[in-house]
Amino acid sequence: IELVKSYPPSFFSLCWSYSIYLELRRWTSIQLRNYFLTASILLLVGCTLEVFTPLANVSDAFREFAYKGTFIYGDTERDFEVFGGVRPKLFTQEPSHIARMFLVSSTFYLVFSSSPFRYFIYLMLNGSMYILVRSTTQPAFILIGMSVALFLAPIESKSAFKIITRLMGVAVIAAFLTMIAAIFASERLVLLMQGKDASTFQRMIGPFL
Question: Residues near 95 by Cβ (< 8 Å), separated by ≥ 6?
Answer without folding.
Answer: 73, 87, 88, 89, 133, 134, 135
